[in-house]
Amino acid sequence: MKRVLASLIAGMMILGSFGSFSTPASSGLSDLIKVSTEIPYCDGSEEENCGLQRGIEQIQRIEDLETERSASEYVQDVVAYILSFLAIITVVVIIYAGFVILTSVGNDEKVSSAKNTLLSSLIGLGLIFLAFPIAQFIIDVLTTTQGTA
Q: Residue 140 in contact with residue 106, Cβ under 8 Å?
């Protein structure tokens, strides 16, 4: 069982690493990529109109672009992504515990160990679902206290 699980994990790691190291030069697509040195918001007539301020003006014309966000909103986004990742990992652990229960073949030690893992992962999943509202409440309290002081 351990050997099968280890080979599955190793296979996923090997297959997952293929896409992370490919570059355009190594994949044979370098002739299709054309590098442009032109600045897209510069008309080329005046050099002073091609500065940073001109680029900022062009970006501000884009609709639905968030330009003003507080640090607490960024923290909330990071916390949400981390908790989503942890929830996915917890579901995988729950599936693993169910698989161990199904393949225990009457071994009471494996069944009790898998039940403990299942119970712990369900408690963890509950804590994960409660963690975001708790973190958001703490961030709201901290931002309102800073605004009044």
A: no
